[in-house]
Amino acid sequence: xxxxxxxxxxxxxxxxxxxxxxxxxxxxxxxxxxxxxxxxxxxxxxxxxxxxxxxxxxxxxxxxxxxxxxxxxxxxxxxxxxxxxxxxxxxxxxxxxxxxxxxxxxxxxxxxxxxxxxxxxxxxxxxxxxxxxxxxxxxxxxxxxxxxxxxxxxxxxxxxxxxxxxxxxxxxxxxxxxxxxxxxxxxxxxxxxxxxxxxxxxxxxxxxxxxxxxxxxxxxxxxxxxxxxxxxxxxxxxxxxxxxxxxxxxxxxxxxxxxxxxxxxxxxxxxxxxxxxxxxxxxxxxxxxxxxxxxxxxxxxxxxxxxxxxxxxxxxxxxxxxxxxxxxxxxxxxxx
Length: 336
Prior knowledge:
This protein is mainly α. The chain contains 13 helices and two strands; from the N terminus they run ααααααααααααββα.
C-alpha cells in the first residue's frame, strides 16, 4: 500500500473511531439527564468527507445508531430525541438512496414524546429529501401524505402528496383513492379504515401487518364507542339521569348484553356519562373512549418490541451458555 493509501486508511479509521466513541457515549446516556443531549455530532458533509468513498459503509453504521438510539430512548420514555435529526441527516447524506432511513426515520421523528421526537416538520423535510433523491419510489409520497394527515391534521397537503404519488409508475391504485378521500374531507375513521386495510393487504412484512391489524381494531373500537355513546345519551334523555353502568342499559332493554371492545373487554361508562374502554393500552391508537383527561399517547412501536425481544434473546443465550459451561465443568473427564 502506498503512502497515500495508508494515510487514507488512517483517516477512515479515525472517522470510524469517532463514530464508535459517539456510540459509546450514547450508550452511557441511560437516565433522564441524557435528555440534555450534549453530545457533539459532526455535520453530514464532514462525515462524508472523512468516509473517503466508503459512504455506504458509513451510512449503514449511522443507520444502525439511529435504530439503537431511538429504541433506547423510546424504552426510557425520554422527552427529547435531540440527536435524532442529525443522525438521520448524516445517514441520508452518506447514502441518499437508503429509503428505509427516510421511511422509518420519519416515523421516529413524527411521533409525540415519549414515543418519538415530536417533530413532524422535521419528518416532512426528511421525506421530501427522500423524494428528491428517489423520485421513482412512490411509497415515500404515501409516507408524506400519512404524516400530513395524521400528525399535521392537514388533509389538503395530504391529498396533494397522495395525488403526486399516484402518478409515479407502479404506484398502487388506492393512492388515488386516498387523495380523493382527503380532498373531499371524508370521514377520518372511514379514511383510516381504507388506508390500513390497503396496507394490510399490500404487505407481507409481519411487523407492519401486526401494526395494521392493531390499527384496524382501534378504528373498530372508535366506531363502536360513537354508536354506544348515542344510546347512552338517549337513555339519559328518556330517564332523566345518566346510566351508571352498561348493565343498566342492558336492564333497560337497550342492549342484549354488555358490549365488548375488539380485545374482548367490556366498555364502561365513567362518572361524566362518557363511554370509555377498560384498558386503553390494549388499543393504543383509539381516539374515542379514552378515560377523562388522558391524551392519545399510547403508540405501538415495532422497534421497541424488537428491542425487548433482542434483550430477552440475549439473556436466554447467556443463560444457556452459562448452563453449558457449568455442565462441562462438572462433567468427569473419561479420557486417559
